[in-house]
Amino acid sequence: MATKKKMTLYLPEELLNEMRQEALRQDRSLSWIMEAAWKVARERLREMPGVEELYEDYEDYEAAS
């Protein structure tokens, strides 16, 4: 079994309300909904550029100007 750790997340109220509604609809906990959402989204998030990549692109743009 995976180790569980407690964490506090600050989310916009509207997002939290949507997550609560989905948790009720699926008869699941909020933590289950968050974990499932991460599993669905992680590959897409890995495709997004990181800060270092964005900074390099900006430096290249500035050098070309």
TrEMBL record:
It comes from the Bacteria. InterPro entries: MXAN_4361/MXAN_4362. NCBIfam families: TIGR04563 family protein. This is TIGR04563 family protein. It comes from Lujinxingia sediminis.
